[in-house]
Amino acid sequence: MRVTDSGMSLNYLASINQAREQIMDLQGQVASGKRVQKPSDDPVAIGSIMRLQTSLDQNAQYSQNISAGKGIIDATTGALDSLSDLLTTLKQTVTSAVNASTTEALSTDADTVDQLLGEAVDIANTRFGGKYIFGGTQTLDSPFTLSADHSTITMNPNGIDGTISLPVGDGVQEQVNIPGEQAFGGTALFDLMIQIRDTMNSGSSPTAAQVDAVNQSLDQILNSAGKAGSISQSLDTFSANLDQQKTQLTAMLSNVQDADIAEASMKLQNYQVMLNAALAVAAQSLPKSLLDFLGSTAL
Amino acid sequence: MSGLNGILNIAKNALMAQQVGIEVTNHNVSNAGTLGYSRQRVNFVTAPAQLESFGYLGSGVAIASIQRQSNMFINQQIWTTNYNLGQATQQGQILDQIQSALNEPSDTGLGAMITNFFSSFQNLAQNPEDSALRNSVVQSATSMNNTFHQLHSTLQQLQGDLTPEITSRVDQINTLVKGIWQSDQTIAALQANGAEANDALDQRDNQIAALSQLANVQVRQDDKGATTIVVGGSVLESSSGYITLKAATSGGQVQILNEDTSQPVDISSGELGGILQIVNTTIPNYKSELDSLASTIISQVNAIHETGYGLGTPPSTGNDFFAGSDASTIAISAAVSSDVNAIAASGDGSPGDNSVALSLADLANALTMSGGTETISQNYNSFVADVGSSVQASTNSEQSQNLVLTQLQNQQNSISGVSTDEEMVNLIQFQKGFDAAAKVITSVNDMYQSILNMIA
Fold this sequence. Notes:
CATH architecture of the domain at 49-254 in chain A: Up-down Bundle
Number of helices of chain B: 10
Order of helices and strands of chain B: HEEEEHHHHEEEEEEHEEHHHH
Shape of chain B: rod-shaped
Mean pLDDT of chain A: 90
Low-confidence stretches of chain A: none
Oligomer: heterodimer
CATH class of the domain at 49-254 in chain A: Mainly Alpha
Mean pLDDT of chain B: 92
């Protein structure tokens, strides 16, 4: 094959250009740490990368949902715990009042019950982040209203039985509130307290049925507190799952997207050596021709 | 014709022949770097022998022709490679621009915007009674809408920017075709006089090479070198004449027409073919991909949103979340943009209910695209992957066509290219030949002198 000057120049240019292109690409990989920087770098991987990225974003959103849910349910647990303490006090008061002999003692106990009634309604109207936690989905209106003279209790007429759920995983929703209807059985607890107070104020001891009702109420509140606790626990489990998923997703994303820096650096060096060699060869051999050796005497 | 005069004549012809050799060498060396130059070679032949009494006596050297070293077969292959390469390069460049506009994978691309938009409904679901969170829903919807608008207008603008690119290439083609026809006329005229039209042929082949980068031309040449150029079944140029092309737009499609007859000319490859394909097919496809994403989001979100209730007494209901119908018009509805409390999170009107917000957030995972087989994000992701593989295919094709072209150019160079080494060797050879012929003349001169001396 005849080798011509322009042919040699073209070949040198082509190989130098090729080495430079590779070097540019590898430098980009090493600098960004990413093997796939644009879709055309690996159209197959780009689908996985974007899917994993979306999963990671969703994962973060679920974690955030769980924190929000935990806030509500922990406030609920706290409120129900205080209420169960309060009912324990009520139970002691009522039990001692059964054996009380004087109307004075009964009246004092009645005052105590009245005070507990006020506190219980306050607890049932607990707000967290501006929301009434026992209002069901009626979070902006207080679930219970105690009349000024503590004679009647009314419930929000729109109902306080709505449940609130939040997504905590793909296709999984978890209830994050205990609606007042479920927690207190409507106004029954407060009606009972009003009834006991009025009984004692009228000079009678609380009836055995009333004592039983107090015990049942305490059980119900403890039950609700237990439910809140188990929701909180299940949120913790979901949260731990999400953390684990996040670690896995991040690792998977890194696998498809990230550059193997060591390998890229090695390749980079290889191409640099190749480029240097090509340049050196070009610099040495391109300017040479027969002319250099003919000398002035021959021509 | 033997005798001293005969010797002198042979030597004179030899001197002249070596000079022509040196002139052609000079021409070759001078044009070693000229684009498309084919080296020329002097074909020396022996002059017709003379019959003498003792037999045939050679009568020296004669010049048969000065021939251009070129291989039509390789040229043809180079022209074919040229239009494939032109198409791949052009499409690669344009698709790369579209790919950059998509800006994926990133936190600011449309993919992230769509995810953020649906996530914002989960945030709203955490506190549906909160007006401030409603603003963040509007904000993420606005960001998503803006990204849709931006992508749409990038494609729109690109399509507009490509129209002058098409016209300028059609003009180039017209100029080149006219030039080729003129070269053909010159070549025919030269050849009619029995001369080799070496440099004119080079010039014409250069023009064909330039033309072949622009369009998928088929070139036929007869043994006299007359050219017929055909593209997509239409004869662009032949010895009988040439046609002029024009670009015409109808119904958003750009067509190339014969200027005189308005018959469509099918240009499917080359730079022009590549651009036409992008303008007529690729960009409209990408636009409709974006439009169907946007319209699905609009209709799906609105359908659920209408059933929900906003904040307020009484809570508003039946409102659309989005206005518009496609990627260029998607916008927040008037109801929502005038009052964020019109965003429906609640399914029954109670402020703490988040069921509608959750249903809206769930749309992110619903199979609403491609006939119920893909989620919105999946559909967008495959769109991005599609753009990516188109860019990759163009780049790969560009690389492989480049390799083929380099290979062919090497072959062409080894036939047509100038080697200075070779030319120097030829130069020395011709110079020595010249010296030798001159020496013969000196000797003949001496011989004449001897004869004259004998007479004196």
